[in-house]
Structure formats: structure tokens, C-alpha cells
Amino acid sequence: MNEQRRLRVALLGAGSVGSQVASMLLEHADALAERTGARLELAGIAVRNLDAPRDVDLPRELLTTDAESLIVGADIVIELMGGIEPARSYILTALRAGADVVTGNKALLAEHGAEIYDVADQVGASVSYEAAVAAAIPIIRPLKDSLAGDRVERIFGILNGSTNYILDKMDREQLPAEEAQQLATDLGYLEADPTLDLGGYDAAHKAAILASLAFHTKVSLDDVHREGIELVTADVIEGARSAGYVVKLLAVCERLTEPEGESVSVRVYPALIDREHPMASVHGGNNAVFVEAAAAGPLMFYGAGAGGRETASAVMGDVVSAARRHIAGGIGVGESPRLSLPVAPVGRILTRYQVRLEVSDAPGVLQEIAGIFNDEGVSVATVDQSQVEEGEDGARRRAVIVLATHRARESALQATVDRLRASDVVSHVVSVLRVEGE
Ligand code: HSE
Fold first, then answer.
1. What pLDDT sits at residue 438?
2. Is residue 62 part of a domain?
3. Cis omega before residue 86 (within 30°)?
């Protein structure tokens, strides 16, 4: 071990993850020196407010509000401040000054990743971001390195811990959505702007990052079809359970191979998962990612998807890796060549669906509904008329019909749903959910 080598590490941000990273850098300094061959010297921690309360006590003399000065002369810059600006500018400054960058900033990478990777490539520096997706779970490095010689066909997973916690509470404890959301808020699981979690934006950022990496192409947030969990009520959860499913907010990234060429589809939505599927057993704030690769077959990654200490573990792995590169020399491993595959609109996807309808319980209704599915080329697999109740006038009766389809094109399914909504026999389209994982 060369104890003489010192690498200056600049940390930007001392929130829940940043403060844990600082503490790990300080506490494990000797072990890190052994693993990397250099002493990782925490040169300073840039914060907005020197007096803000922190999760761990940090040496006051390391704190500064002058991020620019800290970046200058650093070998490794760890950006954990979040947000787009000034994080983007700081990262570009660091790269242009020759530093390697480690970041957990999913929104920044999903929206400005291409620009950042280009600058890193130009200067031969590296940008690592294991912490940006699924916190403690190693998923970036497996996609970037371990599977680099394979062909990834599909990734699907639970990438957002707080919505998984909410849906899990609704499913296992039959809590109403508002109550489950309040519990998640009380535990500090939700982002400062909860819409990022509840609206599926956080999962969409992560899906864009994974798809870009897996398919060697540029996928940004705007390319991701996104639906959140706002419309998932206790009734929807109960309906799913009675049909043998659990509702999960899923991210799906897949390669579409069609006669007209290859494209990718990236989408986030609440979907039904068979209760026997391993994904159904992902409880609480955990994440899970399934990767299907041509040669490797199906792989599953599972663990904590959030948390300061857990996310800091992923950051530290990237820091060690960057330090080793500095010691070994050579240019940083850039992003893989970009194929620029087109991103397909969600209408092109093929999946299965469950459609719940409230209808008039009268002769010919089922035939009319079946005719609409048939006209649009959507094949019905099962029909279940599970609830029948009296209408308000006591004379007209209504039924709830649950139809499960075989694999169908999303555009055909949407046309079917539009016609069902307009039909006289359908009083209400209660829910339309994709069925994934089969
Ligand atoms: N808000 C995120 C989640 C935190 O709930 O998963 C980790 O990225």
C-alpha cells in the first residue's frame, strides 16, 4: 500500500445521505486507504446552511458554503445536494477540472445525463451513480460491467420505496390510501415534494437511467410513460386481491423487436402482479429489480431502496472505484456507445390487462361488451361477474364485471376502453390495470 498518496475528496451536500458518507469517509479512513492504495482526505463539505441540524455530527471546520473553491483541486467530487442547479454546474466544473464525479442525483441524470456523460468522455473522467437508482442495491454496476457482454431484453422492478410502502400497507393492513400515505410521511419516506413519489416521477427518473444504460441509448424523463398511484384506492387494492393479485408501482424498460425495427419502451405505472410472483413479496420500503438478459437469463436484485446509510453504501462503492482509477491511472470508463434506438409510444406495448366495469345487469349486456373487445381485436381470457346489487331505484340492477385479457396491444386496449366508456350499458369503467410479470 502506498500511504503517501492522498486523494482530495470534496463532498457537496450533507443531508441524510451526505452526512452518512462524510461519517463513513472519516470513520473508515484506514480501511479505505488499504482498499484503494491512497488516503481519501475529506477536504470539505459544501452546505447551504452551516448551522442546519444534521443526522450525524460533522467536524465544523469541514463545513463551507463555498462549493466552487472546494471543487477546485479535488480529485473526487461527491455530489449529494440534489436538484438540477447548481448541482449540474458544479458537476460540469468538477469534470472539466479533471475530477471524477460520484453522484446520487437521479433527476439530474435523467434530465441532463447525456450532457454530463459527454463532458466526462471529452476529458477522460468518470461519472458514477450507483446511488441514483434503488439506493443500496447494486444495479448500475451489474448493467454497466457484469452484463456489458450480454444483451439486456427487459428490466422491470419496484424502484420507489415510499409508494411500495403505501401500497403494501393498503394491501396487507387494508388501510385507506390517505392513512397509508400519512404513515409514509411520518416515517420521512416521501420526498420533500411528495408528488415526485406519488406521481411516479421518481421511479420514472430511475427507469430512464436504467433504460439508457441497459439499451445503450438516450432515454430521458420525457421519454418515459408515467402514471402514479393517485388513482389506486382501497377498492382497487381489494379488487386486485380478490383476483389473486397485488398492486405495485412498476417500472418496465423493454426492447421491442418488430418488423419495422427495434425500439425501446420505458414506462412506470401501477400494475397487477400475481401474488405468487417474487415481486409480490417485496414489502415496505424495499426495491426489487428483475433483469432479463439473452444469455444470463432472469436475474433478481433486491434490498433497501432508500435510507441515508443504505444509500451511502452505494456512494462509497463508487468513491472506492474512482480512487482506484486515480491510483491506477488511465481514462475513466465512459458510458457505452449510444445506439440512439427510438423510444416507442406506450400504445405499441403488448401486455395483459384487467378491466373492471360497472354495468347494467340486463340481458345482452355481456354480449355487447364482448363485441366491443372483439371489434378492437382484444382477446378476453376470463370474465367474472362477482358483485350484483340493486340499483338506486330498486328496479334496475347493476353488476361489476371483471374482464382479464390475453396479451393485447395497448392502443387496441385504449380504443376498447374509450368505446366502453361511451357505451350505454357501461355505467362506469372502475379501473384498467396492466398485468405484469407473467
Ligand atoms: N423517494 C425515493 C423512494 C427515495 O421512495 O424510493 C429513494 O430514491
1. 73
2. yes
3. yes
Per the document, the length of the chain is 438
Residue found by looking up cell 347493476 in the block: 398
- Full domain range(s) for residue 288: 140-304
Choose one of 129, 159, 162 to mutate for the ligand 1 pocket test, by most ligand atoms within 8 angstroms of C-beta. Answer: 162
Ligand 1 atom with minimal separation from the 164 CA:
5
- Ligand 1 in reach of 162 Cβ (< 6 A): yes
Of 130, 141, 124, 190, residue with least CA distance to 161: 190
Confidence of residue 392 (pLDDT cuts 50, 70, 90): low
Burial of 57 (C-beta count, 10 Å sphere; 0-12/13-18/19+): exposed
Per-residue pLDDT at 1: 47
Q: State whether 378 and 248 are in the same domain.
A: no
pLDDT at 361 over 90: no
* Average pLDDT estimate for 245-274: 96
DSSP secondary structure of 123-153: HT--EE-GGGSSTTS--HHIIIIITTTS-EE
pLDDT at 232 over 80: yes
Residue 342 lies in a domain: no
Could you tell me if residue 160 is inside a domain? yes
Q: Give the residue with greater pLDDT, 416 vs 188.
A: 416
Cβ(100) – ligand 1 distance below 6 Å: no
- For residue 70, tell me if it sits in a domain: yes
CATH number where 65 lies: 3.40.50.720
* Inter-residue contact 85 to 107 (CB < 8 Å): no
> Residue 157 phi/psi, 5° resolution?
-175, 175
